[in-house]
Design brief:
The protein is of the alpha+beta class. It contains nine helices and 19 strands. Strand 2 and strand 3 form a beta hairpin.
Length: 344
Amino acid sequence: MAPMGIRLSPLGVAVFCLLGVGVIYHLYAGVISSRLAAFRTRGKVDLRELLAVSLEAAVLGGTEVKKVREENGLKEKSKGKTKEGANELLTMGDLQSHRKMFNLISNAFPEVTVNSEEHDNTVDKAAAWSRDIPTDIRDKIEGGKYVPADSITVWIDPLDATQEYTENLVKYVTTMVCVAVDGKPVIGVIHQPFTGFTAWAFVGQGSNMRPRPSYTVSPPKAIVSRSHSGTVKSYVQEAFGNSTTIIEAGGAGYKVLSLLEMPSSETGSMDQADVYIHVTFIKKWDICAGAALLKALGGHMTTLKGEDIDYSGTPVNKGGLVASVGVDHKALLERLPNWDPEKH
């Protein structure tokens, strides 16, 4: 009951209550909105943010790779042999880069599966994403590209072309990150530690790369692995003729970049190829980033039989590969002789 002599106006009480509700809403609307947004995106990952983290991780790993090489602190050892009998080398550059890249991505997105070429038990909880989204990514890619975290597989190669790294053939060396969604390559980052250049692409969204204006396929310039060039040379010549130019190079990342138009500042040291061919087993952390770059630019990376490669599950691709952009990929495949990498 109101004090004696004072009558409360129903209208006044209603207005007062409405004002109170308005003040409370104004004060807490941001909190409520953010919690609703968090609820809606729980268990999901914004792919633009994951692209930014991938780029930052590749550059961070590249810094370690360059530092170890320049200090001549490689401490190389063999991890074993490949199916073809070549030594698989491990250096401090590989390990230090792995620690930076793996921990940065895992800390930023702990719910995402990250597969690395290297394995190490060092946990660095202090490795934190800067939350920076580079301007070229911000300009080309809209935020809010959410996918379920459990649909994502991240493949990282902390140091591609380790053999060449130990020989100081550093132009072939890259660090790479790839994001696959439901086994399909969606984001690719290839960083060159010794030039500082980074190529990136987000399939269906944008890239800082593009194909060259023209390619030749009669015959093409084919880029192949220098570690077992004899086998693949005869295969390529059988497909395209003895006059085919064959470029021997290290690193799957480098070979993919050789198919693309590089910035003028980088072209001096880069080979230019029309097709990339590999006829033996190869790991997915070696090829996934390149597959995403090519796919984003309208190109293809398939097995020798023309099958798409599934970038989930086992790390080994047993079907060899053919990679191209700006040419008729199917026509290239039709010229290839029958070959089963599992039998060679």
